[in-house]
Amino acid sequence: MSSRLDNANPIVYQSQKEREILPEDEDDNIEDKVDSREVFDLIRCINDPEHPLTLEELNVVENDRVHVNNEENRVQVEFTPTIPHCSMATLIGLSIRVKLLRSLPSRFKVSVMKLHE
Length: 117
Description:
single chain, alpha+beta, GMP Synthetase, Chain A, domain 3, three-stranded mixed sheet, 2 helices, FSCA_dom_sf
């Protein structure tokens, strides 16, 4: 592993508050659809490969860039690396994809895309 970091001094952003769990969220008799916040909560705590920070703290993933279509069984996540030519972007995308494939019902097709800013 290279000792040089792509982004040695990243900007750290404030994390969102935890989502409030309602009684109906825990009721197994109620069918609830997967929503973007639920998906975001799964990936927000993934650690960045180069820093001891989460993808949320680095603003690599944002709730607004998570899209869920329950009718078509699709989840799409767009992420933004901290720098334009991040050598870790592929690893970050793969980490997001694997986390979602392991966590979501198998009916979902997961798409992860890197945005260019």
